[in-house]
Write a structure and sequence with these properties.
Jelly Rolls, five-stranded antiparallel beta sheet, 11 helices
Length: about 260
């Protein structure tokens, strides 16, 4: 699958292109890749982008950078409006080498919309003219944007991948290190060491982090905090809210305001 075909059928894609897409509710794009790197911006709704290295949750007002030739799948958590910035290899060598989620500031959002109104031939015009400056500043903003902690890293060990995948698809299930060790036919200490080495997180921290991020699509639809806490394996709304604030910097009730 290559969305770039839609904007430049019959010839090479332009060095930088912006594509507007309003996919069907709950649409899913299977694993695919592009030569171009891409910034996938959620203007409205929540997306989940998956690669072999993990999952990235992309709420309204954020975007995920996916480097060129990275196999990835995209799932829409309900209705989503997307704007995708495609950047050809070599246009900007300072763009991130790995996937990351960033905040789309009002400036970056305005630049994406302005660049999207340009003709493909004008998009990479001389930086001494207005069109070129718009695109150059847009790429500057993408390059310098700090990463947000909206990544759920995946281990490499096949048994651990399988266990993590089960939790991702059913975050309400009870999980213990002992239970995972038994299922994976590993002792607890070996599992704990392997998990920390491959994900950079302890087993318990990973489970809490994954459950929290997986709650964002439901939070965006107005699901009550009590329901979210129970659906995502938390003992109480206060425990869920405390972890939410610690991880994302604001309480759940404020996360989607003015995004």
């Amino acid at each position: 699958m290559d969305i770039l075909i839609d904007i430049h059928t019959g010839s090479a894609p332009p060095p930088v292109a912006i594509v507007a897409t309003d996919p069907p509710s709950h649409a899913a794009y299977p694993m695919h890749s592009h030569r171009h790197g891409q910034l996938i911006h959620a203007i409205a709704g929540v997306m989940i982008v998956r690669t072999n290295e993990g999952s990235w949750v992309v709420p309204t007002g954020r975007a995920v950078w996916v480097p060129g030739n990275t196999e990835h799948a995209i799932e829409m958590a309900g209705e989503v409006q997307m704007r995708t910035v495609f950047v050809a290899p070599g246009v900007r060598t300072a763009l991130p080498a790995k996937c990351r989620v960033i905040t789309v500031t009002p400036l970056l959002r305005a630049l994406i919309l302005a660049a999207g109104a340009l003709t493909p031939a004008a998009v990479m015009s001389d930086v001494h003219c207005r069109d070129g400056r718009v695109v150059a500043l847009m790429l500057d903003e993408i390059e310098q944007a700090p990463a947000l902690s909206l990544h759920v890293p995946m281990p490499q060990h096949p048994a651990l991948v399988a266990l993590c995948t089960v939790l991702i698809h059913d975050p309400s299930q009870p999980v213990t290190l002992a239970g995972w060790a038994q299922t994976a036919h590993m002792n607890e200490r070996t599992l704990a060491r392997t998990f920390k080495r491959e994900t950079g997180m302890t087993h318990g921290a990973w489970c809490r982090h994954a459950r929290l991020l997986l709650s964002l699509p439901r939070l965006a639809t107005g699901t009550p905090i009590l329901t979210l806490a129970l659906e995502h394996g938390y003992d109480s709304p206060s425990a869920f809210a405390a972890m939410f604030r610690k991880t994302l910097g604001v309480p759940p009730s404020e996360y989607f305001r003015e995004r």
